[in-house]
Design brief:
By secondary structure, the protein is mostly helical. The chain is built from ten helices and two strands; from the N terminus they run H-E-H-H-H-E-H-H-H-H-H-H.
Length: 175
Amino acid sequence: ILKTYRRLGVKECFLDNWRLYEEFFDDVRYIILARDPRDVMLSVLDYGEHADWHKKMWADRSDEHIAAQFSRAWSHQLDMLNSSNCLRVRYEDLCRGKVGFSAIAKFCGLDFDEPGSVSQSLEAFPWRAWEIERHSGRLTESAVHRWKEETDETRLQRVHSLAKLMSDYCGFWGY
């Protein structure tokens, strides 16, 4: 594959096998992307409204279950941060332009222009059309701290519950 692609990008939510990349690639670099758990919970609930499988897998589960799954991923990310070449990025800083593509490109040693838009990566999944509409082809300020604008009390309870259950993560990232 490296004869065709000089760089291989991998996006994973759950990182059980992250060390495998280091066995096969000489210069693995990780971007650890954090997001406020309160906004994560809103995304979980929003996805559940658009995909039954996602609702069953996430939104219909208890806050404790969701926190346990995300905390499991966070433990892998902490291992990565402590043992590998990593760039720490808060989603909120990315959306607000405080961390630009140029900083990411420099960290990764990339020599090409900006990547494709959010819309381009989602177009293959028709059930995600609502996401394209929301983000209008880009990451935006509107994706940051959405929980502060939430008015539904049930959703707000879940939002704050997840943050409370993930206090170590919140402390590390400053949420």
